[in-house]
């Protein structure tokens, strides 16, 4: 923030600012109060308002700080410091539209104010206005070529835009200018991971953590990198750092639940609440640990989860009760421990070689009978379930979901294949009105939960899908499942450069975007001959 007190002429203001700088905020406010109450519009009052705003901010009184800076703007509209300082505070409070207006006011009065332009660029970046953000960062660097933070942020932006070479150049310039900038090491680690230079990625994560031992993003990034490389021992341990985010869903669990978090203590005779924090796919994938928790001696294992999982897991091995989240939270104090299924691999010391078999799900026969008639109408063909879009709220949805069902059109060239849409939510309307050259039995809209989805999949021969919960569901049902994976930000669980999965070694096949692929066309081209072979083999078995 800009400091307007360096040349303050009034002794009281100087003394108050000395108190502010030493953290004596209440004393500073008491000294400047007479100036705050005056009607004077002179420099002393403007400086007093600035000190009062900073002190109020230091005391956590953001409304008072805002009031003082707005009064300062009113009585001294040509002085840019209050605009900028208020903008920084509002940006931190998430009021980015107001902050953007204030930074633009500063730049209208003083175009070469690098700090205001830097903050404006970061807002534009956050709002995904990438072209404007890039222009602002480059303007900052014209004003201040040695601004390490601007080089680092520009590099981060360019990495998002897949301009990897430029991104690396700017991040390395940032590190030359400031080798101790932990954020730049973190961004370098993320970039190296995208371009498959995994050893360099690991080194950069570790350097960031040396510089800032409590750097949660770096610890979590290193954990998923290690797990993607099959180094589960340290990976699982570091993955627990997700609980260090107090505002993140995992961090909130620690304060929401009325019992201790299980840290691997003996479970003999104990009651355990398994609390869902993660997505549907995570729950299906890690449900394999439920029987292991029971086998470890737990007297009672209850699962607190969303309704979409209730019918699917209620009859599953290792679960004594399935509760909704509200009921589970209300009853949590009656349990000895709570845990997340995704923490179970740590406590059971899972390695790539010792991954347990999936929990073999058995759909309810009545549901299978309910869903069989429309699927049976496809008799004489190999029946293939499709999912081409995942949850739009997922952080990587733009990369992992296909643009549309039309992307899959080449699959319809395979004789003897018929297609069933399992699409739920995003993509439902498209499935209901599929192109004429892509006849599609759309069942997704009628599905109410994963038990319904499981019953439909039980009647299919193959599932082809993007990285979403249906992949884990189909695989856990024992169905052949082909998963389409993006080149960018591929999830750690699918590991690196493999076309199979140790989590589902018998029936999952991975089709990855390759470096240089633009879109999904080449991936689909590679699937077509495999699908033709699958259909041919299935037809011979009929």
TrEMBL record:
TPR repeats lie at residues 80-113, 148-181, 182-215. This is TPR protein. Transmembrane segments: none annotated. SUPFAM superfamilies: TPR-like, UDP-Glycosyltransferase/glycogen phosphorylase. GO terms for molecular function: glycosyltransferase activity. The lineage of its organism: Bacteria, Pseudomonadati, Pseudomonadota, Betaproteobacteria, Burkholderiales. PROSITE patterns: TPR. It comes from Caballeronia sordidicola. PANTHER family: PROTEIN O-MANNOSYL-TRANSFERASE TMTC1, PTHR44809. Pfam families: Glyco_transf_9 (PF01075), TPR_16 (PF13432), TPR_19 (PF14559). It comes from the Bacteria.
